[in-house]
Write a structure and sequence with these properties.
This protein has 10 helices and 16 strands. It has 362 residues and is α/β, with parallel strands linked by helices.
Length: 362
């Protein structure tokens, strides 16, 4: 399709990309000019959400300040098209009151709260990792959420991974233990990450080992935009002076790791790779944090950590019950729609369980 007009003008826009009762779309940039849409919201800077957005884009965009910096720096989107909404802000677009809450997904990610003149309130979570801290946000206390556009990436009981905090804690302990066993070896710790996203795990490892961090130039550019002092204070340009090396998630496999170990061999005698992923866990493995395994082949060791930036099944359930959703029709899934029927029956179970617990239950 023609990128120049924002891409793919004749593709059908999925219904969940448009916010009911408004002139807004969320994360819908590869459908060209959408009839009836005046403001194009972007929840966060991940390609599957901003696809179609280029320097030729001409329509008003709404996103967080950090996401705006990414759009302007990397995609050369015109700055004057972008209005920012950050947690704590309130703006009016087409008579709709718009505010947002941190989505706990990647840096700059937000969930949008739309308050319509009809009194209806709609929550669009973008991509999010629900956690109990969100429940203390005044935005959720001061109004009832009537509809929620839900990130259903892991809306299946088999995906019940541990909390981020526990996963990080356990991974850090394993890395420290491994590092102390290899104290005589020059050990490089490779941690997989997205361009933006999965920073918490390598930050925690670098902090625990109190060491310098290396990344390629492209990632350093990104870090400059993130303005995260915790990362920037540890950066070193010379690869051999860093103990933690942040590399593309896609290179976290034995073949690539062996190649990297070879490149690093003048300065390091062993490589420990840590791959954070939400996909390692399935029911029946017991407590997989206790079973975190480091596998070793030659001078490369490899550990997968059940660390995700999307909500697990039980986190989704808790969040929907916290919002006091009363009817499955109030929930609009935005991922894995081919499983709509199953997801709907899960929603019905959650709602039924809340009703049985009575009015005080969250």
């Amino acid at each position: 399709y023609n990128q120049k007009d924002g891409g793919g003008g004749n593709k059908k826009v999925p219904y969940y990309k448009k916010v009911k009762g408004t002139s807004f779309s969320v994360d819908a940039f590869n459908y060209g000019d959408i009839p009836g849409v005046r403001y194009y919201f972007l929840s966060h800077y991940h390609y599957d959400h901003f696809r179609g957005l280029t320097k030729h884009w001409k329509k008003p965009i709404v996103c967080s300040s950090l996401t705006k910096r990414c759009l302007v720096t990397f995609l050369k989107v015109s700055e004057n098209l972008i209005t920012t909404v950050d947690p704590g802000d309130e703006r009016i677009f087409d008579q709709v009151q718009v505010s947002c809450v941190t989505a706990n997904h990647c840096p700059g990610s937000v969930m949008f709260v739309f308050r319509l003149t009809t009194g209806q309130t709609i929550l669009h979570v973008g991509d999010f990792r629900a956690n109990p801290d969100m429940e203390s946000d005044p935005l959720f206390w001061n109004q009832k959420i009537d509809h929620v556009y839900l990130d259903t990436t892991y809306c299946d009981p088999q995906y019940d991974f541990p909390s981020q905090h526990l996963a990080i804690e356990r991974a850090v302990a394993k890395v420290e233990e491994f590092a102390s066993r290899h104290a005589n070896n020059r050990l490089a710790v490779l941690v997989g990450a997205y361009t933006i996203g999965k920073e918490r795990i390598f930050k925690a490892i670098a902090k625990a080992l109190d060491c310098k961090v290396w990344a390629n130039n492209r990632r350093l550019e990104t870090w400059k935009v993130l303005q995260d002092e915790e990362i920037n204070s540890r950066i070193v340009k010379d690869r051999y002076k860093a103990k933690v090396h942040v590399i593309e998630q896609g290179k976290m496999n034995w073949k690539h790791l062996k190649d990297i170990a070879k490149q690093l061999s003048p300065g390091f005698s062993h490589v420990l790779a840590v791959k954070p992923t939400g996909w390692t866990h399935e029911k029946g493995q017991g407590n997989e944090l206790e079973n975190l395994k480091i596998k070793t082949g030659g001078n490369v060791s490899f550990m997968e950590v059940p660390y995700s930036e999307h909500s697990s099944y039980s986190e989704l359930k808790r969040f929907i019950q916290f919002l006091r959703i009363k009817d499955t029709r109030q929930i609009i899934p935005t991922v894995n729609l081919y499983q709509s029927k199953e997801m709907n029956s899960y929603f019905a179970d959650w709602i039924r369980e809340s009703k049985e617990k009575g009015p005080e239950s969250q």
